[in-house]
Amino acid sequence: MQLQTHAWESALLSLAHEAHQSEHLSSQLHVDAATLAHAYDHCEAIIATHSRSFWFASSLLPHEKRRAARALYAFCRVTDDIVDRAGVDAETQLQQWRRRVMAANPSPSDPVLLAWTDARLRYHVPLRYAEQLIEGVARDFTQVRYATFEELTAYCYGVASTVGLMSMHIIGYAGAKAIPYAIKLGVALQLTNILRDIGEDWRMGRLYLPQEDLDLFGITEADVARGAVTASWRAFMRYQIARNRHLYAEARPGIALLDADGRFAIAAAAELYQAILTDIEAHDYDVFSRRAHISTWGKLRRLPGIWLRVRGSE
Fold first, then answer.
1. Which of 305, 302, 250, 310 has the alpha carbon at shortest distance from 276?
2. SS3 call for 146
3. Rounded to an integer, what distance in angstroms lies between the CA atom of residue 244 and that of residue 185?
4. What CA–CA distance (Å, rounded) separates 237 from 106?
5. pLDDT in tens, 243-272
6. Within 13 Å, how many C-alpha atoms sit on residue 283's CB side?
7. Three-state SS annotation for 63-99
8. Three-class SS string for 6-38?
9. DSSP bridge partners of 210
10. What's the pLDDT score for residue 26?
11. Terminus-to-terminus CA distance in the chain, angstroms?
């Protein structure tokens, strides 16, 4: 397979390799089975409530990897919610959360951190990836506009590629050559989030669209505030979606570098997320008055084709 690279990827690869080569512990937590089982059940409940897409895709993993992946999601969810919902004390709360995450022995009274730490140790996930995730979400405290696409990809790495890199350890992978593909897929997934949530993010005071791209199509922040779907907006969104799909295509060969029992789940996550782009197109690029989504039936009917494509690439 031939890896396609872009100039913006160099800095992200440096971050990933720094974390990948950092020291990570191989021990396990000393906690009773009932407490640990409760912690994992708590993570399952978080996912069932907050992310039907991740619940759906992670259901395709074997049991042990599935519960580890869901502990990872719950850890990411708690981290993100601190920034989005904690109010004036959010920065202090995130600093406190970071100290707890970095501690060797989480409290049994903190089920998300307990389950995630257990999963991280079992699958030898470098702790530095989790720290990079926290640093990534912390950017929302200080930066709510992005001048260039390259600048935006650095944000995407922090909040999404780190998750893919941690997931890669849980699933199993064929060495460091898988890292660039995990980075690409994380950026692609986050870009889809950004395009889907433009209206919602704007109402929170955030605009994750590169200013250079808005300028290219003659779109101002006042235009975004009005939520008007104009010819310029459609052209802008077609440009963003085409670039997003190209990244998914570049990331796809990396799925073959994962352990066989995890390929279907990751391929499903990628393709089902890509379908959100199709839903945006089907509704005339209106991301202001509705949130693009894929129905349960829409997900189910895509699974046989995804499975066949995964099998065909093995």
1. 302
2. strand
3. 10
4. 44
5. 999 999 999 999 999 999 999 999 999 999
6. 15
7. HHHHHHHHHHHHHHHHHHHHHHHCHHHHHHHHHHHHH
8. CCCHHHHHHHHHHHHCCCCCCCCCCCCHHHHHH
9. 146
10. 58
11. 12
Rounding to the nearest 10 degrees, give the CA dihedral for residues 147, 148, 150, 156.
Answer: 60
Sequence letter at residue 175: G
Checking if the pLDDT of 314 tops 80, the result is no
pTM of the model: 0.94
207 CA to centre of own chain? 18
pLDDT at 79 over 80: yes
Q: Do residues 166 and 125 touch, judged by C-beta distance below 8 A?
A: yes
DSSP string, 163-208: HHHHHHHHH-BSSGGGHHHHHHHHHHHHHHHHHHTHHHHHHTT---
Reading the block at residue 289, the tokens are 């008055």
With both helix axes pointing from N to C terminus, report the angle between 63-85 and 33-50 in degrees, rounded to the nearest 10.
60
Structure tokens at 314: 């093995």
Q: Which residues contact 106 (CB under 8 A, 6 or more apart)?
A: 29, 100, 113, 114, 117
CA distance 126 to 124: 6
Q: Which residue in 151, 134, 248, 132 sits closest to 208, CA to CA?
A: 151
Contact between residue 51 and residue 108 where contact means Cβ atoms under 8 Å apart: no
Residues 6+ apart with CB under 8 A from 134: 79, 94, 97, 98, 101
Cα separation, 18 vs 12, in Å, equals 10
Torsion of CA 123, 128, 134, 139, to 10 degrees: -140
Q: What is the DSSP letter of 292?
A: -
The predicted model gives 205-233 an average pLDDT of: 97
Q: Are 137 and 86 in contact (CB under 8 A)?
A: no
How many whole angstroms separate alpha carbon 9 and alpha carbon 98? 26
